[in-house]
Amino acid sequence: MDRPEFDSIKDYAEFSKYYWYRDELIKICKDHGLKSPSGKIELNKVIEAYFAGEKILPGKKSGRKKKPVVTELTLDTGIIECGFTFGNKFREFFSQQTGEDHFKFNVDMVATVKAVKESDDESFTLGDLLDVYYGKKIYAQYDKSALQWNKFVKDFCADDATKVFVERLRAAAIL
Hints:
- This protein has helices at residues 12-15, 22-31, 40-51, 88-98, 107-119, 126-133, 145-158, 168-174.
- By secondary structure, it is mostly helical.
């Protein structure tokens, strides 16, 4: 099935019939002056809104990041206030809090931090994020449907029975 150019597609239902790579979705959004988030699910939502007549525009960036004013991390330290990142400093903090030698941030923590930063929620703390880790609190959840699709495609392509398909990815998308 040949895919038409994006600008010749009339609605989201038609757009959804085709497989689009993340880089293609980003380019489509940028070419049309739309917000171009990094995740495929978010990109698809922006494009769906575009077909519904709503333009989700990119946020304005001030060019300057606020410098974190916090030097010592506590459970009461705000995510925004401390300039939270998923780097070693914060990994070590959460390792100390959980007692896990090799602490790993989970996908719901990532979704939560993203939502906190997007909404500029200065009340959300590292303690709240720890509650998200333990499943005691829900602020934002990662949409795991993309993970399911990726696992399906990986398993599908690794299965010897699918070698009969010349284009395995296309066959997987049709299924």
